[in-house]
Design a protein that fits this description.
The chain is mainly α. The chain has helices at residues 6-20, 25-31, 36-43, 51-61, 65-73; strands at residues 78-80, 86-88. A two-stranded antiparallel sheet has the order 1-2. A hairpin with a 5-residue loop joins strand 1 and strand 2. The two termini are 35 Å apart.
Amino acid sequence: MRNNTLSETVPAALRAELARRSLPKGTFAHRLGRSEMWLYRRLKRRVEFTLSDLDAICDELAIEPIELLTATMAAPKKWTTAGGVHRQRSRTPNPPAMEGSGQ
């Protein structure tokens, strides 16, 4: 079961990408040929991004949509076991056993 919907993921991913690039939201909106208010409403989830919006955004950022969406998914997610215990998944697999360690 997914924790976040795409309507939650896209604004969060775009905010993170703009911050990573130190790109002001207003500047980015103007590069898209849109107003700051247009971008603000979508980042605050008052209006959902369309697929055309996502395509234009990714073209401007020179990335594929999957790259934008998976950037925020790479962070560890919390999950709940049947007993209600919260644990965090590790982002890295267990390291391989060292030779001669007896494992």
